[in-house]
Structure formats: C-alpha cells, structure tokens
Amino acid sequence: MSRESSLWLNNNTLIGQTDKRGEAWHYRAADQGDESNHYPGFVPVEDVKRRLFYWKPVETALRARAELLTPDGVTILDIVDNDRKVLIRPDTETVLGVFKSSYVVHDYEETLINLTQEVVGNGVGIGSAGLLRGGACAWVQFEFESTKEIAGVAYRPFVTAATSLDGRLATQWLNGAQVVVCDNTLDAATAGATLKIKKRHTKGSVHAESWLDIREALALSIEDTAESFERRVEILTNTNISDGEWSKFLDAHYGEVPKDEGRGRTAATNRNNKLTALYYNDPRVSPWKGTAYGVVQAVNTFTHHVITPKAGNRADTNAWRVISGEVAEMDTATVNSINTVLKSAKRKALILA
User: Fold this and answer.
1) Which of 194, 241, 273, 222 is nearest to 120 (CA)?
2) What's the pTM value of the predicted model, to 2 decimals?
3) What confidence tens digit (pLDDT) does each residue in 245-254 have?
4) Are 167 and 202 in contact (CB under 8 A)?
C-alpha cells in the first residue's frame, strides 16, 4: 500500500468496535494524524460529522475557456453552460463531478446520518464510516454493539447508508452481516450486503414524503437481517460438501483448469491452490469446511483478502464492494455454482429465499 493510500485510509475512515474486531489491516500509527481513526466502541456521531462531513459541496455552473487560433490571431472563448453544473469540494478545490442542472445533491450528514439514525432504532451505533475517491463517495454503517452467533458463526447485523457526488452511486441503503472471525461482509440473502432501497439524485428525491418508503424499509431492517442471516447460515452449514464436490465447485465457479501448459494453466492452478488452502486450513474458513457455508466463506475471504485489486487499494475496493452491492452479487454467484454441483449429483438445490 502506498503512503498516499495509507494516509487517506488512516484519516478518512473511522473504524468502531475495535475491542471486538481488532485493528483494521490498514492501521499505521505514523499515519494517524492528531487523532486515531480507531474507536474501541461505536464511532460517535459527532466525530463522523466533525472529522468526515465537515464540508459541503459547492455547486456552480459549468465554465470553460478555450483559445482559438484564427487568421486575426488568438481568440479567447469563455463559455458558461447553465444547463450543467460542477460539484466542487471547497477545502481541497477538487472537482467531484459534472452533471445536468437537474442533478440533486444528497447531503452526507443529513442523509447518511440523520435520516438513517432516525429509523434504524435503538441499540445500534456507527460501526464504521468513511470517504472514498477524494470525498466523492461516502458511507456510514450502523450495527449492533453485541455479537450474535449461529452455527459457530459470530456476526453483527448492519445497515449501510451510502451515496456519491460523482454520479457513480445512487443514494442507497443495504443490509448485511459482518462476520467477526474474518471481518468479511456476507450477504443476508445468501450468506455481504443486500440492496434494500435506492434513491437517484433527481428532482423530488429529497422531499419529505419521498422518504416514507425508506423509513418503512429500514424500520426493521437490522432485526430482519439477523433473522434472515441465521436462517440462511443454518441451511448452508447443514448442506454437506464432499472433497470431490469441492473440486467440482472450483471447476463450475471458475472454469476448468486448462490442460495445455502455459500462463492460463499456471494462473488457474495457483488460484485453486490458494482457495483450497483457505478452505481446508485457514481459521477464517476451515471450521466450516465440508459445508456449503465453508464454500461461500472461502470465496468471500479469497476475494476480500487474497486477490490483488485491479485498481486502487484493497480497503477502497472492499468498501466499494459493500456499498455498491457487489458483495451480494458475488455471494449469489457462489451459491449458484454450488447448486450446479448439487444438481449434477442429483442432490437437492439450496433454496435461500
């Protein structure tokens, strides 16, 4: 991890419940600045507002200057496009995004903290919060203080609120479960984060009456997540997977290892060896080897902690997977591949709905 990435993560993400989850992998005391970004309990709401959401984006009409070489010399064109606007982070003077004038900003503090906190109920607090992409994306995760357990899986249900100022993300709320043994996010519908509801940045999206469906969806979402997660973990842990079926899963999920010698065969063999080592030997996965849950946990852990991100750093990539819903897609794909193996063995497919 570069020094620039380390400085960003240690000063623009706030990590709570460290007495239960331990230090984040990116923690470096030398890059912490004046305050630690780690909290033994919940992250105080006021700290999120003070340390992360202390600024508001500035909106201005799109302006451009062009120099044209003409027979008469150089002509300067100054253009103002009132049909488009630019969002700027004022403290860093960074351009966050360019949009049509109808684009509506969803304020980080009001939307991610105030609105969400109002409806998630008592007994929860902020487990983590952060900024990505220079402040163009933000999230706040609310979770239970106490850890729940089912089939040997210790977890904490959560609701994550996320939005963006660069057009990459609608404002959305997701639920899921944080698995303590590996600090992975797993999908409540399969075993990371299931999209509950989203609001696009359009006119009318911030009117009070437009939030009613959000309030209804979030009112019981954390409790619902716990019940949903436990029901699905029970199904997954009670579904046996033989050693031979594990090998068949790798073929079904990633494709068979090429028979011809070459880069493709080497890469596929190395990947399968790393996954198999996780599945059989890694304490984040091996307690559930021989079960469908162990398979889901192996792929999820491999993706979160082993695969080198194609772009950016691991913490940014993992955070983006959660707030964008990619974790849910990943876990669903894993279950689908398990079902391919079960069906080929004429066994009953997993039904997690």
Assistant:
1) 222
2) 0.76
3) 999 999 999 9
4) no
